[in-house]
Design goal:
heterodimer; A: 402 residues; alpha+beta; 12 strands; 19% strand; B: five-stranded antiparallel β-sheet; 1 helix
Amino acid sequence: MSSDWGWSTPLESIAGQVALAGVGEAPASARSDRSALDMAGDAIEAAITDAGLTPADIDGLMIQKGMAGQYSAAAFHARFGTRHDLWVSDAGGAMTWAGTAPYAAAAALHAGTARHIVNVFAIDWASQKAAGTGGPGDYHAQERMKAGYELPFGYYPQPVYFAGVARRHMHDHGTTEAQLGAIAVAQRAHANGHPGAVMHDKPLTLDQYLARPMLVDPLRMEDFCLISDGAAAYLMTTPERARDLARPPVIVAGVGEGVSRAGTYFSQQGDFTATPQVFAAPAAFAMAGLSPADVDVLAVYDPFTIVALMQIEDMGFCAKGEGGAFVEGDRLSHARGRVRGGLPFNTHGGLLSHAYLLGISHVVELVRQLRGEAANQVADARVAAYGGFTGGDASTLLLVRP
Amino acid sequence: MTTGFPLPDLADPGLAPFWEAAAKGELKLPRRIDGAGFDWYPSGARVEWVRLPGTGRLYTWSLVQRPLHPGYAGITPYVAALVELDEAPGVRLVTRLLDPPARLAVGLPVAARFVDLGTPGPETGVIGPLFVVQSVNDEG
């Protein structure tokens, strides 16, 4: 397959320029009837406390672009009783941008525009879905060409897109249902070990997975992400300032962003069974001077098992097409670790079994792994990678413990 | 989001030539005047809408067992499919299979049938190209 179906966004190196000095969450759940704004405020407050700072120290706020109900300077001041100037950027949030927010933050920190920047994302889709007011399919249903050429044929929503991708991956590479199931099972085991995971109390074996009915063949419910309420935030500053704060800092070593020419028209993407990680990941590893072999723990945006599998391939953890065999057995378990040939993967349970917080919880989990305080701790984790995905875009964020 | 069967906006100039052709039993797609292939999905490039034979190969499919949109209740279960069209390189046409066989495979020959989009459920009043799998004998 030629590689002209997308590109890597040119980024100047920010290696060593940004520290993640605090993380926080609002509890993830099924329908809660909490507002996204309240949950975002809870996550921000927890991140500030984690870093040992006060709300008055926060002078930068990064939020998700193009989604209703995200945070604002006014919401910050209303909650914390502050009045100071806040630099606000919509280059943050979740999905791809949970990985690239540190890039925009680096420029603001360097220019002195802000000293302590919080990136936050909140979602209340479980409550919205219950109320019939919204959810993950709305963007696609309203997109002009999808409405005109895809929905009239039943090609909607995302499970239909990615069942077709899985089917074609199976045809091209011999990938099996049990191999997709291995991802679901590994992540569920991680959720079972994580008290904050929505599926904490629900075990899943591979036999149980295979006995479940197909929803969109070849995908089962267990191949789909959850729909959740919740929020998470991480606090960024310079490595110099981070050394004086409460927690051991985690340093950004590399960032990469990849773009598909077809955007979110998955049906027309040049390489149908790949993700823009093929453009993002090499750029991030080059910036960091690292390779996939150096990564101790990986967290990838996993709306469906097949999307997790493709990104493992596209980020270079195995050859294209070999992802199915790669994820079998206990390869993805936090307990196995790289030295024994494993790849600890989505160690909080991911979108499949922790919560559907669109990737920002993945970054929070990686920070905890590098601090050595994760629920499913990977032994001696020093290098972590996040794979962000939005369909038409993807990002790789590489984090290290100094 | 509408709860009825999701139908195309036939007044949209980027959509109308396709659906007007379909109503007449023809498959037409926009080919760029500058020779750079088909403009799919329409981007606003200068194009001519050309008639295609309506045949191709099954690229992949999704067998939907439960309606994930309330409007699809009358067609479920169904097979949403991507078809690589003859004489339109680079295009994967989104469609749905009509009377799909139990066993499907990538690469099977398929051909367009112009029927109501709601088939076999309630009529929608809009005709579109669904596809049938051709047996080897039909292949010509």
